[in-house]
Amino acid sequence: MADRVLVPFDGSPPATDALEFAFEHFPDATVIALYVIEIPDGRWAQAVGPELQIPVSERAQEYASDVLESASEVATEYDRELETKIVTGEPDHRIVAQAEEESIDLIVIGSHSQTGISRLLLGSVAEKVVRRSPVPVLVAR
């Protein structure tokens, strides 16, 4: 059984579905909603590494807080506690790093259902997390 569940949360319907799934199927687990302020791959992301934070604008921080507030509202609907965390970087890398740093037992991530050429060219965060994660990943659809 999973004691600590990480749910990457961006406010989208698939992310909300993943959060609801975590609450419904893991009633005794500590659930952590993670928002990643995306910093594109490049020199800054490579120089900083997963454990350091890149300074971001106050506006980006406020937006992230607002998104996680909506996650907290979902938690209230389920009468559950929710831990929230904001980090910066490439989403797939940061999600995997947080799973390692926070001793996570399971990642529950929403699928954006990309198909065809879009999925082949762009990939998806969920797909990359599944490939890189040191812990089990459940993709909610």
TrEMBL record:
Keywords: Plasmid. SUPFAM superfamilies: Adenine nucleotide alpha hydrolases-like. Residues 1-141 form the UspA domain. The keyword Zinc does not apply. Transmembrane segments: none annotated. Pfam families: Usp. Belongs to the universal stress protein A family. PANTHER family: STRESS RESPONSE PROTEIN NHAX (PTHR46268), UNIVERSAL STRESS PROTEIN (PTHR46268:SF24). This is UspA domain-containing protein. The lineage of its organism: Archaea, Methanobacteriati, Methanobacteriota, Stenosarchaea group, Halobacteria.
